[in-house]
Amino acid sequence: QEQLVESGGGLVRTGDSLRLSCTASGRIFSTYHMGWFRQAPGREREFVANISWSGGTIYYADSVKGRFTVSRENAKNTMTLQMNSLKPEDTAVYSCAARFSDYHTWEYWGPGTQVTVSP
């Protein structure tokens, strides 16, 4: 059973940066596609970014393109999300997820970490 745990959230000001990490326990991390999602209060969960198992294919939501960077280090079972130029609208609970391929549903989820950006 793969388990995911996020870390790195916190309270920052507009324009600041944060670096989130997602660490997986288990043996399948390096073969799974990974993604970041976020959910703000009263809103549906939305896609932020995803990265293929090799790191060779990456997609971003338009709302974060140019500001966020996703990366992974399979040897350490870790995926990161570098968030720069943060805005109040980035405030949300950020969760990481894993799936076997683009044709599979997101199978594993972390509990999430809160990111709050003050004006």
Protein architecture, described:
The chain is mainly β and 119 residues long. The protein has no helices and 11 strands. It has strands at 3-7, 10-13, 18-25, 33-39, 46-51, 58-60, 68-73, 78-83, 92-99, 108-109, 113-118. The strands form 2 sheets. Strands 2, 4, 5, 6, 9, 10 and 11 form a 7-stranded mixed beta sheet that branches. The termini are far apart.
Question: What key attributes describe this structure?
Answer:
mainly beta, four-stranded antiparallel β-sheet, 119 residues, 11 strands, seven-stranded mixed β-sheet
- Please give the number of β-strands: 11
Mean pLDDT: 95
Helicity level? under 10%
Structural class: mainly beta
| Coarse morphology | globular
| Assembly type | single chain
Main beta sheet, described?
Answer: 7 strands, mixed
- % residues in beta strands: over 45%
> Which stretches are low in confidence, meaning pLDDT under 50 for 5 or more residues running?
none
- Order of helical and strand elements: EEEEEEEEEEE
N-C termini distance: 40 Å
Estimated radius of gyration:
13 Å
Count of helical regions:
0
